[in-house]
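Structure ticket #2291
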Amino acid sequence: MRQIGERFEKNEKRISGLEQAVQQMAQEQQARLAKQMQEAHTKVLIDVTSAGYERGTAYTNVLMLAGYAGIFGIWSFTKDHLTETASLTVALLVGLSLMFFVGWELAKMIHGSFHVSKMTKLISGNKSPGDFFTELEKTQTEAKVAQLWFGRAWFVILAVTIIPGFGGALLLYYHYLAILLDWPAWP
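Resolution: structure written out below.
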């Protein structure tokens, strides 16, 4: 009877150890699945955010370029009616705005060129399919993360382009009103 009791206790310990091992494996599997789901959701969010940023910047670029063309066009046709100080101030403000805008677009172009260079190198390399797809996903993720950074920085650049650009345009229009309404010129 005693032997049966000892065997029963040994089997109970084995079963308990097995239960703990199964529970640990289940927890590890759940953690792996949760991490995979998080990575998949993160990838989708990066894709969606990047696509929205690309569409938004394309629209903004068209508006900005139309604004610059309009301001410079109006200014060039009517600058003879402005004071020299007003004309130079408008040129300085709008030119500063344009310089920030072009600098930003150049930075994006340079980043894009580096990305294309990485992709070309990847495509022309002799990698195994597994290494190729791993490297491809890594390169694409890096590009999308960089796009997210550009998206956050874009608001700052947008402000430093809009403020002086609008300042120049407002000064230009103030002077036209001043000429029409006989107000004093400023500055």
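Closing remark: The chain has three helices and no strands.
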